[in-house]
Specification:
The complex is a heterodimer.
Chain A: H1 5-22, H2 26-50, H3 59-76, H4 81-97, H5 107-127, H6 129-132, E1 146-147, E2 150-151, H7 155-178, H8 180-190, H9 192-197, H10 202-228, H11 233-236, H12 240-252, H13 259-278, H14 284-297, H15 302-316
Antiparallel strand pairs in A: 1-2
Chain B: H1 2-33, H2 40-58, H3 65-85, H4 91-114, E1 119-120, H5 124-127, E2 129-132, E3 135-138, H6 139-161, H7 163-173, H8 175-180, H9 185-210, E4 212-213, H10 217-232, H11 237-257, H12 263-277
Antiparallel strand pairs in B: 1-4, 2-3
Classes of the chains: A mainly alpha, B mainly alpha.
Chain lengths: 317, 290
């Protein structure tokens, strides 16, 4: 896999410069980590949308299931936190197995069936009190451990964990996109029927993309629960875990890999630092308006728009 | 026990009336534009909050809110139509995201204007008990059930006899053929949005009159309406009515026999069951599988 010089420079800056320059400011670090959590979900959502051709309004299901699986495994079975985090992703994949029959359905049916699942999981988490703690939730979920003298549960430590997760996700996304599967998936986007005729099992490929997306979202959900050490159904399955990533992915461009991440950081920071101060309750109104504006004026997102702009400048120069 | 079940059936049927109005609006718009309006429940919510405002500010019965709600909701519905019609490509998926965004805007606008508090009617006339033999209900429940049956009758007449109603059906079943027959699909689409807005206005006032409302409720209503259209099968108006009654009864039975916390679960489970077992709904024509 090729990696550009700017890419390496950005990774270096993210690993070294950000902790060095901002690490002491815990407010800024917590904003960045929160933005990256949204970015992770946005990436997973966009992968399903771009490669699988499916819009999901139910990613909070994967986020919540990942969080609950990981929290319960660490609290009740004593599984180490980092291992449990990955198992949280596996839990989300298992949850997504229940959604397989919906894959045969087109557009709105998939989008709303997956929303129905998110509701069902939320109700289960609330009602299954013996395991999940019910609506009161789970308090004092284990923190990240201290590895080789470095406290991973600190703001900087958590930042490095989520950064590494995102980099792995990006790498996985790139590998999938350039593989045979990726080519078949892109062909499916043009015409699913035609792709099926030449012998591609489209339902299987969509299922695989659903698994990958569910796994990523579940891991992020699990990361978040060990990061904040607390969990309750309304939080774990909150509609915010759907709305923000969708706005981020559409804003940044859901057909690109980095668009959702850039979108997440931009949208989250602007929302928290500006909109939230302007309108304390109901600041999501602006996010909704942003979503509407993007779909109408530039459904491909901001990244392609910017790229077009710079290309023109280059051509002129 | 059997009395409880009978009572649950009765309440479920009454509730089904408003559900049918909401789901019919969603189905009409889907018919003409092939767009699922995810902001449809928010239109209903808007009407419900108009009823609240008329009652709390002017001290009038929620019924008086209907004209105001009609104007406001129909204007909003037409705005939704114009936004959707601006989508240039990949309308099936982009319209979902677009109307989802409109839903967020409306929910948060309601939150800003009316706050997150749970509201319900304080009119004792609406809440008074009405007893028919073994069946008990609030007066408002029966009143609005009658209103919704009348509206459905009106809708049936409109769809089968009037020029525009028949145009809506024609565009729904075959857009190109309808165009060749001299029907303007654009104006038909606007008409379907307006009719959906009218039905949503009545449903919203009804829901405020016998239940409780809060900003997040619009989203719940959209999901319920979608569940009903899936139960019904696309393109079946009588199916929507049966589906609405089914959902109302299933919810009422769950509340009676199990707990009110599971009320939403039953709708979702019914929905998934139908998707898996009868993907074309109980009354629908083929053509949903991809």
């Amino acid at each position: 896999m090729k990696m550009s010089k700017t890419g390496l420079a950005v990774i270096f800056a993210a690993y070294v410069l950000v902790p060095l320059l901002l690490g002491s400011n815990s407010y800024v670090m917590s904003l960045i980590v929160a933005a990256m959590i949204i970015g992770g979900i946005a990436l997973a959502w966009a992968l399903l949308g771009n490669l699988g051709g499916m819009v999901s309004f139910g990613h909070s299901a994967f986020f919540g299931v990942g969080a609950y699986v990981s929290a319960i495994l660490t609290m009740k079975a004593g599984v180490p936190v980092l291992a449990a985090m990955l198992l949280g992703g596996v839990g989300a994949v298992v949850a997504s197995l229940a959604m397989l029959p919906v894959l045969r359905l087109r557009g709105p049916y998939f989008a709303l069936a997956i929303l129905a699942y998110a509701h069902i999981f939320k109700i289960l988490a609330t009602e299954w009190t013996s395991v999940t703690g019910g609506s009161a939730g789970l308090a004092s979920v284990p923190r990240f451990p201290t590895l080789m003298g470095f406290d991973l549960s600190s703001k900087t430590g958590s930042y490095l964990i989520v950064l590494s997760l995102l980099l792995v996700f990006i790498a996985a996304y790139r590998v999938i996109r350039s593989s045979h599967y990726g080519i078949a998936l892109r062909a499916m986007h043009d015409s699913e029927d035609a792709t099926r005729v030449v012998g591609v099992n489209s339902t299987l490929l969509k299922a695989l993309m659903l698994f990958v997306s569910a796994f990523m979202t579940g891991v992020i959900g699990a990361f978040n629960v060990h990061y904040i050490n607390f969990l309750e159904p309304d939080y774990a399955f909150s509609g915010l875990w759907v709305t923000l990533p969708i706005v981020a992915a559409i804003f940044g461009g859901y057909r690109t890999i980095l668009g959702p991440l850039v979108g997440a950081v931009t949208v989250y920071l602007v929302d928290q630092l500006i909109f939230k101060n302007l309108i304390p309750s109901g600041h999501q109104l602006i996010l909704g308006a942003l979503l509407v504006a993007m779909i109408i004026f530039s459904p491909g997102g901001l990244m392609p728009l910017l790229r077009k702009g710079t290309r023109r400048k280059h051509a002129a120069a | 026990m059997s009395e409880l079940i009978l009572q649950a059936l009765y309440s479920g049927v009454l509730q089904g009336g408003s559900y049918a109005l909401i789901a019919l609006g969603l189905a009409l718009v889907f018919g003409t534009m092939k767009v699922i309006n995810l902001a449809h429940g928010e239109l209903v919510l808007l009407a419900a909050y108009m009823a609240y405002t008329v009652e709390s500010r002017l001290g009038l019965s929620p019924m008086f809110a209907i004209p105001v709600a009609l104007v406001l909701v129909c204007i909003t519905a037409v705005l939704v139509y114009f936004l959707v019609s601006l989508i240039r490509k990949d309308r099936e998926l982009n319209s979902l995201i677009l109307t989802y965004g409109i839903g967020i805007i409306l929910t948060n606008a309601v939150l800003l204007i009316w706050s997150a508090d749970v509201r319900s009617t304080s009119s004792s006339w609406m809440q008074d008990a009405l007893v028919f033999g073994p069946f008990y209900s609030m007066r408002s429940e029966v009143l609005f059930f009658v209103v919704s049956v009348a509206l459905m009758g009106g809708l049936w007449w409109w769809l089968s006899k009037s020029w525009y109603g028949r145009a809506v059906r024609a565009v729904s079943s075959n857009r190109d053929a309808a165009k060749l027959m001299g029907i303007n699909p654009r104006s038909t689409e606007i008409v379907s949005f307006i009719v959906a807005g009218i039905l949503a206005s009545f449903a919203g006032v009804a829901i405020f009159s016998y239940g409780v409302i809060q900003p997040a409720f619009g989203h719940v209503l959209t999901v319920k309406a979608f569940i009903i259209t899936v139960l019904a099968g696309i393109g079946s108006i009588p199916g929507v009515m049966v589906g609405a009654l089914l959902l109302g009864i299933a919810e009422a039975l769950t509340v009676t026999l199990a707990s009110s916390a599971l009320q939403e679960l039953v709708g979702m489970s019914l929905f998934l069951l139908v998707l898996f077992v009868m993907p074309n709904g109980l009354f629908g024509a083929a053509g949903r599988r991809g």
